Amino acid sequence: MISVNDFKTGLTVQVDGDIFTVLDFQHVKPGKGAAFVRSKLKNLRNGNTVERTFRAGETIGRAIIENRGVSYLYASGTEHTFMDNETYDQFTLTSDQLEWELNFLKENMNVKIVSYQGEILGIDLPTSVELKVIETEPSVKGNTAQGATKNAKVETGLNVQVPLFINEGDVLLIDTREGKYSSRA
User: Fold this and answer.
1) From edge to edge, which strands make up the β-sheet containing 90-94?
2) Are 81 and 98 members of one domain?
3) How many domains does the chain have?
4) Strand intervals (E) in 29-124
5) What is the pTM of this model?
6) Residue limits of the Elongation factor P C-terminal domain (predicted)?
7) What is the pLDDT confidence band of residue 3, given thresholds at 50, 70 and 90?
8) In the chain, where does DSSP find H-type helix?
9) What is the DSSP code string of 106-132?
10) Is the same domain home to 131 and 106?
């Protein structure tokens, strides 16, 4: 058990049978009435974000999340197969469970699996990945306005805005948190 007074960003807790990670919190001490903690929590099972208010000093369950290294092997329809790097056990996740992550996953890529008491909650991507540009418009000479960008499609199917000097075949670093171009690899 953990007190809500000890909330930290990134802490994982169990509330009403669901697993949440703390995105944001604020201790509030009104002039009249008891103190409370206002928090923003992300449900790790379905990805929904909720705002929750707790009384100061209230205790809730601490959820110990396990991260293990796995390799993404292949996709078969809507199922995606992974292999544990230590035990070589294979398991599958559906496209619904990996909706955002599929924009960055390539075969044989190493990622971390997030699980709670044997239940797989999802995967944790590195902060940036290298992806090859497969389709983009050619640069037009003289089109050099400040900060001009164009659309590029990378090998996973993700469309990103890139500077005009990027061509097909270039390898880019893409930020997995926002899905934006960082730099050339």
Assistant:
1) 90-94, 79-84, 66-76, 109-116, 119-124
2) yes
3) 3
4) 36-43, 49-55, 59-62, 66-76, 79-84, 90-94, 109-116, 119-124
5) 0.73
6) 129-184
7) confident
8) none
9) -TTEEEEEEEETTEEEEEE--SEEEEE
10) no
